[in-house]
Amino acid sequence: MTLPRTAATFPPPVMEARRWIADAKFSAERPLINVSQAAPVDPPTDALRKHIAETALTLDSAHLYGPVLGLPALRAEVASNFSAAYGGAINDSNVCITAGCNQAFCAAMMTLAAEGDEVILPTPYYFNHKMWLDMTGVRCVDLPTGPGLLPDPDVARAMITERTRAIVLVTPNNPAGVEYPADLVAAFRDVAREARIALIVDETYRDFHSKSGAPHDLFTDPDWADTVIQLYSFSKAYRLTGHRVGAMIAHPDRLAQVEKFLDTVTICPNQLAQHAALWGMQNLGQWLAGERAEILDRRAAIEEGFPKLAEKGWDLLGVGAYFAYVTHPFRRSSLQLAQDMVSDAAVLALPGTMFMPDDDPAGQRQLRIAFANIDRAGINTLFERLAGLAPRKVSS
């Protein structure tokens, strides 16, 4: 019997981890520190919530079907904002709005790859990217990263075959937090262009990049659209995770194909979410700058506090945006450690095995810490708990 497509991949990692705490009890003196999911838990600002409510009450069209590729005003705002931010030419026709950045990735891949084709993903990879490739019968070609968890464009070039359709970069990276230098991103663009394949750049966390100014210069190339597909999320910037709103920037001809997919899946992006994203882009620039400063301060707290873990044999492989990616010093696997940490430290984190192929032993020693929802004090408490973990007997 042929198995359904969903059987081709693994369970959703965040949902899997939540099951580890379903029956757990935590005391008021030692509450759970949840660093498993890269999402803000606070709601949008009061001003944005009021705008959403007013839109729901006064704008009848917000409750009806809208354009499949998104609200024209939001597409225009993204084009204008991103053109200014990146110093390039992006037009309204290059922009579509999606039900979250995950859907943008799925839509892009539907226009690029058929069953049996190949897509190159640097490891550790974002698990939802791997899951979608699995479920669509597209082979994931794992690109091991080198020092600093940076992928090598020359290694990627050697992996390209006649079935390769795209290279995917996530920067700042999920799960590793690493920011890819502009010249590295450009080198991957050159590799992709040379091979006549797409370069997908997922910039979900671009608003929390440590570099001031444009993180790369891809859009200054007048021919960028022949190769580059950029993905973006409004969820992290404006705390709109539950509203599901993202964006894709690509050649208009590709968006014409994307429209087929989106019309079949969601018909149109959430209307209230799009109005919220538009208002956020137009009114919350100063507030977002403050959010970025807070995240960068938490990144600094990770770097400043990590020596207490380094003394215990931990290693900080990467840090940035919402993430710290670490290795642990224990003999047990990261999956077992992550499960043990719930009872031993009241900490929920995701193991590296959820971001690495099964045949890569590196994942057995790695953990992702998503620190967007813990402040400096919380980071200090987290490190104290991790430093206090004791070795356990390895399960046979």
Radius of gyration: 21 Å
Unreliable stretches covering 5 or more consecutive residues: none
Mean pLDDT: 96
CATH fold descriptor of the largest domain:
Aspartate Aminotransferase, domain 2
Give the CATH superfamily of the largest domain.
Type I PLP-dependent aspartate aminotransferase-like (Major domain)
Question: Quick one: overall form?
Answer: globular
Distance between the termini: 34 Å
- Main sheet? 7 strands, mixed
Structural class: alpha/beta
Number of discrete domains: 2
CATH architecture grouping of the largest domain: 3-Layer(aba) Sandwich
Summed up, the helix count is 14
**Tally of DSSP β-strands:** 13
Q: Beta-sheet strand percentage?
A: 15-25%
The top level CATH class name of the largest domain: Alpha Beta
Order of helices and strands: HEHHEHEHEHEHEEHEHHHHEEHEEEH
Describe the structure.
By secondary structure, the chain is of the alpha/beta class. It has two domains: 5-43 and 287-387, Alpha-Beta Complex (Aspartate Aminotransferase, domain 1), CATH 3.90.1150.10; 46-284, Aspartate Aminotransferase, domain 2 (3-Layer(aba) Sandwich). It is 40% helix and 15% strand. It has 14 helices and 13 strands. It has helices spanning 13-20, 46-58, 72-86, 101-112, 127-135, 153-159, 182-195, 235-238, 252-265, 271-283, 285-305, 307-310, 334-345, 376-387; strands at 33-34, 95-98, 118-123, 139-144, 164-170, 198-202, 228-233, 246-249, 315-320, 323-327, 347-348, 350-351, 366-370. It has a seven-stranded mixed sheet, with helices on both faces. Helix 7 links the parallel strand 5 (164-170) and strand 6 (198-202). The mean pLDDT is 96.
